[in-house]
Every structure is written in C-alpha cells, then in structure tokens.
Queue: 2 jobs
Job 1
Amino acid sequence: MNEMVLEARDVTRRFTIGASLFKRATTFSAVKGVSLSLRQGEVLGLVGESGCGKSTLANMLLGLLDPSEGEVLVGGKAISRSSPLERARRIQPIFQNPYSSLNPRKSVEDIVSLPLRIHNVGSASERRAKVAEMLDMVGLSRRYLDSYPNQLSGGQRQRVAIARALIMRPEVVICDEPTSALDVSVQSQILNLLLDIKDELNVSYVLISHNLAVVQHIATRVAVMYLGRIVEEQPTEQLFANPRHPYTEALLSSVLTPEPELGIPDTHLGAAFPNPMDPPPGCSFHPRCPHAMPHCSTLHPRPLSDGDRMVECHLYDEAAAQAAREPQPA
Amino acid sequence: MSKVLEVENLRVDIPVAGGVLHAVRGVSFSLEKGETLCIVGESGCGKSLTSLALMGLLPRAARRTADKLIFDGIDLQSASRRQMQTIRGDRLSMIFQEPMTSLNPAYTIGDQLMEAMLWHKRVSRAEARERAIFLLEKVGITGAAKRLGQYPHQLSGGLRQRVMIAMSLMCGPAVIIADEPTTALDVTIQAQILLLLSELQAEFGMGLVLITHDLGVVARIADRVLVMYAGQVVENGSARQVFGAPLHPYTRGLLRCMPIPGRTRPGERLGSIPGIVPSLIGEIRGCAFRDRCGHARSACADFDRLRHNETGHEWRCIMDEAESLSRADELEDV
Amino acid sequence: MTFKELSSPEDAATPPAPAKPRWRDGQFLRRAFKHSAFMVGVVIFVLIVLMALAAPLLAPHDPYVQSMTNRLVPPIWMENGTWEHPLGTDGLGRDYLSRILYGARISLIIGIFTVITSGLIGTTLGVLAGYFGGRVDLVVNFVVMTRLTLPVIMVALAIVSIVGGSLIVVILVLGLLLWDRFAVVMRSATMQVRSQEYVLAARAVGCSTPYIIIREILPNIFGSLVVIGTFEMANAILLEAALSFLGLGVQPPTPSWGLMVAEGRQYLLFEPWLIMVPGAAIFALVLAINLLGDGLRDILTPENRS
C-alpha cells in the first residue's frame, strides 16, 4: 500500500443563503459527512451531476473552504493546521474553464511563475528558466512565455493552467472537469498529457468529472456523489463491470458512446430532480429510483463497506429492510 | 419519401477586419419527413451558423447565399421578413442550448407556451391552454396545469429544456432545429431528453436537425450524419456508415480521440489530431484538412469535392473508398 | 523530462505569438482613434486642461482687477465689442475671458480632487464588500443605502452654510458624498472577477488576500473604475457650479463658472452673454468628460457592445 496523500474525514459543509437585514437566512448542506482517501499514485474519480456538491468538496480538499465539520488531511497533516503556503506546495487545482482560470492581464510567464514568486523560489532568471522547462513539459512552445491568455487557444490555455499547477511539484492535483470545456480533439491531448505527467512526476489526482468515459479512462478508483453524499465507491474496473447503486447504474447507462446500434438508453429515472437546498427525506435518491422501497423514503441508508468497495443503498441492507418490515415496538 | 428541407450549396460570409470570413462554404443536404439529421463538428466548423442561416436568424453583417433553400415547399430565399416570421415558430421551430436563458424570466411558462400558438393560429386561449397542458404531459412534466402558472426560475434545467421542447411542438412544426439541446444538462437528464425527442419525433413525424459537438449523442440518435470541418461537409452518411466505417480521416481522427468504455484500454494513449483549424478568412483552395492529415499528398491542394458511393455515403477526400478503408488503421500505428 | 511526442500539436501550425497584450500593442489607440465621439471628448477636454494650465499666459488681464469705467463691455461678436476684452467684461468691469480661463482651473481642481476622494472611499468599500461578501457586504450595503438617503445638494448646502464655503470645503463635501456609485459599481465588478477561477487559483497557490485584491482583482476592474471616475467628475463639476450659483460654493471674487452664472443673473435681460459664456463653458467641459467616459467604456470593454 502506498502512502496516504489526501484524506477527508467525515467532512460536512453548510451554506447560509438569503441572508439580509430583514430576512432570516436558510441553511443547507452541500456536502454531508463525506469521507475519502487518496493514496500516492492513485487517481480518484469523483462523479456526480450539477448540484451534488463535488465542487464544494473540491474546494475543501484544496483548503479554500473550511469544512463546517470534519477535517481534511494532506500528507497526514490537518489542512486547517497548515499555512496556506505549506498547503499550496502539496496540493494544487486545475479548473474546468481555461478561459476564466487565467488572469487576462498577465503573461504566461507571470501566470506560471506566480507560485514560485509567492513561495520565494529562486531569482527572476532562475524562475524564468523553471517556467520554460515547465512549458516544455506540458508541450507548449517557449515562445509563448510572453504571450497573454487571449492569444492562446483553449487547449494551450489549459496547458498553461497545468503548468502553473505543477511548477511547485505538488503531491496531489485536483482536476475539476479539466477537459469538459474543450473540443474532442483537444480533450484527448490534455488527457494524454495528464496521464504522462502522472507517471513522470508521481502525482496523484482527484479527477472531478461528469464524463464517465473520461473517468473510466484515467481513474483507478471512482466515488459517485449524489446530493452531498458519496453513494458508492469502487475500483474503476469493478464499478464499471458491476455498479451497485441504482444511481451509478443510471449514470453508466447514460454514457453515450459512438455506437449507433445501441440507440438511446433508457435510464429508468424519474424526471423529478430534487432541489439540493431541500433534499427529500430518507434516501435522497428515492424519488428518481426505479427500485425504491417504502422505507427508502423514511430511513436514510447507511454506508455499507466490504473490502475496497462501499455503497449506500437499502437494496444491500438486509437488516434495515428487516427492521422496516417489522412493526415498531411501542 | 417527401423532403421537408432541401439545402444546396449554402454559404455564409461574414465581413471582418482583414477580409471575408467564409464561415459556411457550400453545405448541401436534405431532410426527409420524420428523419433525424445530426450536424456534428468542433467549435468554429460552421454548424451553428448553418442552423441560424436556415432560420433566417444570422447576425446582421452575415451574408447568406444558396442555390436552393426550400422548406416545406417554400423558397426561404425569396421569403419576405414577414413570411419568415410566420414560418418561424410555426412550421419551423428551434430549441436552443441554454435552457436557463432561452425562457423569458418575466413571463409564466403558460404564457410563453401559448404565445406562439396564439400568434400563428386562429385559436382561443382555452384551446391554446389545452394544447399546452397536453404537450407538457407529453414531455413528461407532472402537474402540467399547475406548471402553467409557474415562472422559469421555479424549474430545474432539465424541466426547462422539456418546456422548451413542448414550446417548439406547440404549432405542430414540420421541422425542429435543435442546437446543442443537451449540452448544458447533466448526463442522466441528457439521455432522458434525447429519448423524449426521438419518441416525440416518432409520434408527430417531424424532421429533426440536431446540431452538436458530441459524437456519442450523434451516434445514438441520428439517422443521417453530416460531419462538418472548416465550413464544409466532409462526410455525410447514415449513422452506421459514418460510425461503422468512417471514410474521412477527420471523422476517424475524432473517433480515435474519444475514450470509449469497453473499447479503449484505460490509461492508454488516446489519438489526437495534430495542428489547428485553418483560418476561414479569405479564399481556401483544396482540402482544408490536409495540413492535419496523415494521408495528405500534394494533389490534396487541388482536391475539393465530395465523393460518393452507391450506398449514398459521401466523403470529401482524395482517397477513394477502397484506399480510405485500407488505410484506416495506419495512423494508429504511429 | 520533455514529452517530445506530445509537444503540443496545436503549436505546429500556430504563427508565432505576438508579444504584447491587446491593450498595449496599439489596439487600444487604434480603437480610440476610430471612436469619433471619444476623440471629440478628448480634444475638448485637452483644450480645456491646456487653457487652465496656461491661464496666466493666455489671460489678457488679471481676472480680479475691477474697472468701473469698463463695466459690461459686450463681447467681440456684438456691437461695441473690442479686442481689448474679447468676451467682454462683467458688472464690475473684470475681463470675462480671463475669468473663464481661471475658472477652468477651479472646475478641474474640484472635479479631479473630488473624484480622487470619492473614488478612494467608494472603491475601498465596494471592493471589500464584493470580495468578502457576507457580513462585510451587508454593512457596506447599509452604509451605501444610508448615503443614498441623503440628498446631496441639501447636505452640501447645510454643511457649507455652517462651516462656510471655500474650495477645500466644497471638495471635501462632494468627495464625502459622491462615492456611492463607485461603491456600487466596484462591488459588482469585484464580485464578478472574484468568481473567476484565476482568483481561486491564486488562493490555491497560497497568495495572501491583499495580494489577490491588489494584483489579481484591481487590474481587471480598473476599466470600470476609470469610466465611473469620468462620470463622477462631470457630476462634481456640475454640483460645484450649482453650489457656487447658490452662493454656497466657492466664494467671490474667485472666478468659478457657477459663480459667474450667478453673478450674471441680474443682467439676464440686457446682457445675456454674462450667463451664456460660463454656461457654455460648463456645458463643453461636462459634455467632453461624458463623451470621454462613454468612449472609454466602449473601448475598454468592446465585447459589451451590441
């Protein structure tokens, strides 16, 4: 077993919205008691749809957002007890939109060397050399050192963002939808680059994506999120071969591969997408679930772990089903 | 076999600083009743402008020309602005990408659904309302009568896109043009919306032109596929032809770029298409893809026409069918 | 260390990148020259600034010297006008052209210093509210709303009538009152920039909050700041004229355009140029600044134009 590089222990994040002078605020939990771990060299895919809390979770892993409960450990040390600089050396993000992740007023060199400057690494000329070396690594010609983001294509911008994330040689990189804003032909180049860099620099990734084909291609383990909870986690191969949670099943069946003979899949999901601010009682997936049972709407399922897989669903919880069938003692 | 839409040699030119941008360069296709035609390509290939040109909704500076542009027996080129207004939203309707911004937040769902019908048809409000409820139920929205009084912000993205689809069906269109209708939606909802579209199409028999960058979507829903590159159709065929035995190197390149569960090995190198799309400003001679193509030869600089075989599969490449198929795997060995 | 084989395929066909950003490589100037309204504004504004700077050289007379024998001399384009006093003289026989030239100084000083004061206050409040949000935002919103309940003219009148009018008082009063628009616009601009991923990336790199605000956010909202600044400057100049007209701004005998209009009031019927000339000067300056602001907005944010 490799060393644990990133761990989240039972993290919860609540948000308060609608606060004003005359209105009481309402609170909702974007992430509810999520635990996950990442070992060196692993790629953890985090899959879920909009509003499931994956971006909130990512920001907590990066230390940009404090958990309301629970804690995040980077390299075994609580992120809340380490300084921003220490944290930044170990964990870095790559964002979805290469058009908004680069400051339009700064040159490529400024952008990529920012971490070096903040961390007081080297002299100006040493930094420039390091940046140039980094650009080589991400496959961007050195002649772009003095270019500005608006002069680059989407793929080139994403390479700059990757160079910025990697220049301090972090142990963990959180990739938040790194290719979903890019064209197919550019997407494949970025995915290839991420894979090459992983081997070269020995980094671990958390890959957040809604594109299961991408996740399957890169991730070694996959966690599926639904409304703030991780509802299933398995090694990639197993998850794709044998999904257990009905939501995972629906996600997998809705992957549209370019195979015309397969037609349009029927996910058997209801159309009622719940409001994340006001999740349904019991299992939050039950209104859309094709296998919902009576007690799904009242009883929150508990996480069931066996070996390296975890699922949170009443279908696999005999004890809870048993208890639900028996009349409650008065 | 009746054609509801016939397009021949459609061109869109946009004057820009430094010349004329030839955004669409001679696109031809036709659409049968009840057929689904997908136009697929990467950003900047001209697919969206093609759809806007059909609707007569191009930006003011753009110039549209065509040898033939016939919709439902009407020549769109000679149609006046007024005629276009009566065609749009009635016989020819459109679904846009962003369900968040394509509904007006100031009006109720009901008002927006009924608006087009009250405008185009001689119906009473009660009849329009009845049809709105009927269609909302058709697109899978529960409590339709209650929804009519709601405002767009009260609905989720998936529901809004369903409302948009219902709206496009209000007047019983002959053709629906959908520009990236599921791109902004979550994957499970995308599958639901596509299923809904194809079911409704089977039921009402309208033609569907779907514009997207997602080859997965295209493969699953299309009867016919147009692959566009640099403002031109580079491949045109049935979904099985285009995905089963693609004949244009660009189509093959795109397919090799995609990780496909069950086909590509996890972690293996994906294919890529080297180079960038050529600038469409000024005249372009020969094959626009030749700078990025592994099979390019000097004659490509002059070759620019669609080949076709007896099955109706068309491709714009110097290689004939036999050569293209025999060299299909070549690039993968590089 | 180098991934030769994947060395960006996109690079191959891309022409060498030019080395400067959009707003430094002459694009700004090229766009500015094409914007005719902006150029008109620039020309008038620069002329007025030059007039103000060179007033001692240009003015034919001392603007304060009265001459009872030369009262109410008409300007050159009227009957009995002389080149001695091209714009005539006022009721006390002071040369009107000289007073207009010196008056430009007052207007510009008021405009510039008011905008600096109010810009500092408003930008600070707005950026803090936009960046931190939550409670800070609530407090700033409250302060802004409180400020908006105060009628500028009335408050200015009240203060000036208590402490007495002078250039400094007018600048301070206007500066402390006119920051609301800065705060509102800077707040929303900051919120918009703050939500950009590059700000998040800077935080993830370990940048401190002051660094992020100064280096990452301010350069990106500077455009709107300049635009608001020009509009507020025009506003301040008009308000000074109004205050002086009411006798509560700059005090006589200082040559202020507003004051000159006020003093010309009693001659309205028979010597209307006494009002028209300083009125036209105020009009030209305010128009020029507004054209400048409008133009800057178009030039700095071309994507927002329809």
Note: The CA atoms of residues 253 and 267 of chain A lie 6 Å apart.
Job 2
Amino acid sequence: MLVGGIFVAGITGKTQLITQCAISGAQQAVEVSFKLIGVMCLWLGIMKIAEEAGIIRIISRIMGPFVRFFFPDIPRSHPAMGAIVITISANMLGLGNAVTPLGIKAMQELQELNPNKDTATPAMCTLLALCTAGFTLVPATIIAIRYAAGSLNPASIIGPTLITSSVTTISVLCADFLCRTIFTRR
Amino acid sequence: MFAELGEQLSVWAIPVLLCLIPLYGFIKGISVYEVFVKGAEEGFYTAIRIMPFLVAMMVAINVFRTSGALQLIVNLIDPIMNKLFLPSELLPLAIMRSLSGSGSLGMTTEILNHYGPDSILGITASTILGSTDTTFYVLTVYFASIGIRNPRYSVYVGLLGDIVGFICSVYICNLFFV
C-alpha cells in the first residue's frame, strides 16, 4: 500500500505531500494509542475485578453452549469463553471505545491456547471476523451525526442497518467456516 | 419505540456496568482498588505495544489516500459499479470504511451535508457506516496486542464482510426508501 501510494504520487507529481502525510499519519497513530491507553486501563481494570469476582466464569458457563458452536476448539469453562461473550455483547450494544480493550482481552486469553504464538488460531480468526463485521443493535454515533446534519428522522437507518449487519455477519461466519476447513486441511 | 429503547440501552450500559462490577467484587470480598490497578497496568502496556503497528498501518493508509492511489482504484472500479447499479458517489466511502474509522466518519458527514441526510445516498451512506467495522484497524490492534504476525485468512474474511455490507446496504436501502 505504501509503495503503491508513493509510486502514484511520483507519477502525479504529489511527492511533496507524501512526506507531510506520512509524518501526520505517524502522529495520528500515536494519538490513537494514547487515547486507547485511558480506555484500556479503565476496562481492563474493571475486567480484572469481574474476573476475580467470578463474574466472567458465570457468564461463560451460561453462554458456553452457544459460543462453543462457533469456537469449537476452546475448552469448557476457559476464561476465553467469557471474554469472547463480553466482547460480542459490547459490540452489539455499540459501546465503541469499550469494545477494543475487551476484544484485546479475549485475544490474550486465546493466545494462551495458541501453540504457535506467531500465527493466528482459527478461534482468533472467527472472533476477528465477528468484530470486523461489527454487529450493532443501535449505531449511536451515526444517529448523532445524522441528527447534526439536520435529518428529520435520524433513527430511520436502524432497520436497514440491522438487516445489513445481520447479512454481513452471517456471510462472514460462513466465509470463516469455509476458510477454516480449507486451511486446516492443508 | 424500538429505536428509543435501544438508544437508552446504549446510554445506560456503561454506567450500569461501571457500578455493578466493582460492587459485586466488593461484596465478594475482593480488594477492588488493588485489583483494578493491576488490570489497568496491563492495559497500559498493551496500548503501548500496539503503537508501532498502528504507526505502520496509519502511515501506509495516509500515503495511500493522499497520493491519489485511492482515487485511481475508485476510477478503476467505477465502470463495474455502474453495471451493478451501485452508486459511484459512495465508492470512496466503501473503500475508506475498511481502512479508517475517522476517515469514513468524515466522509459520511460530507455526504450527509452535501446530499442531505434523508436522501437515498445519505441513508445508504449511514447504513454502510453502521453495518461494518473498520477491518484494518480492528485487525491491527487485536493481533498486534498479542504479537501475531501471520493473520492467515482473516484479512480476506474481513474484507469480504465489507464488500457484502456495502452491496447489501445499497440494495436494502433502495428496497426500503425508494
């Protein structure tokens, strides 16, 4: 992507811009991670309490059978189960910033089960697929910007969004299942 | 009615969680403060560990966008879009959606202001924004935090989701609002 971009800029004579936007991109990245630090600390702190208090174990026991269908390789009552359930529910509620730390927590739990620390396991890929599909019940941010743009009915998109994200989630899960079978056979 | 309920749910979810979890921990006899700090410390190191990966990704995306390479791809796909009856005004947004969250939010705001939030383009753009998440950001952050360098097939699966989301948004919105 970087090489392609610079190549095109060279042809169109925008080379000067490249230096500028490369640097501003790097700065943005640091800003994003600094913003993340605060939320990460908050949520991982809260999650630690939930873990020690046994809340996560309770959740994974209740939701276990359902989640196990999508994540067959996670052992029963492993903390990863609970973390995955919490990530998915936060995603559904549209909690935005809170989702990332929770998802990372789930990934860390999954990493403990990973025999090859460099390479993603099928379970990680499934979780990622679910998160990138981003199934959300109420897209609060979008309703807010629609309201700001003077929409008469800012919430009118909830219906189509629900249908679309269901379709997306289902197709992503199917693709994930297909890829998993193909890649494990090799 | 449903929308309002859902919105209230989103608004209340975080405060309720922030209140209930420590309270439950306290009842269970856990030293809530110490445990919180221990967890928060982990959060700090994780966020720092992600930074180099984010720098690499955001520089690449920024260069890609400013250099006009994005526009080039838009121009290339445009004829195919027209054959499939997909509005080409929305193509840059569809591509940006998988690359950058703030970028696509900005683009949607632009579309809303330019075409009107209740126009079919405005509604479709909002649906595109709402129905998928920023694939590359999620991928980078989640995998970088645990040091995974080989994401295997998950990039393709994520991108497939974005494409399906885009096409589906266009057709569903046409069905609902035209």
Note: Chain A touches chain B through 105 residues (CB under 8 Å).
